[in-house]
Design brief:
single chain, 59 residues, 2 helices
């Protein structure tokens, strides 16, 4: 997977999470419904992977 692919997946996950958060009546900034939690975890996992890859490339 290239850095560009990882970035695209990370941004897609971010959009999915934000869209869900904006429409879900259960999710708050500190509590998430099961679907919101899954989307948030996917976003954070991909964000961490992308940022770690960026850091590794700078070394």
């Amino acid at each position: 997977m290239t850095a560009e692919d990882l970035y695209e997946r990370y941004q897609t996950a971010s959009t999915a999470h934000r869209t869900h958060h904006g429409t879900c009546t259960t999710c708050t900034d500190t509590e998430r419904c099961p679907a919101g939690q899954r989307l948030f975890e996917s976003f954070t996992r991909l964000q961490d992977a992308y940022l770690n890859r960026q850091r590794a490339q700078r070394r």
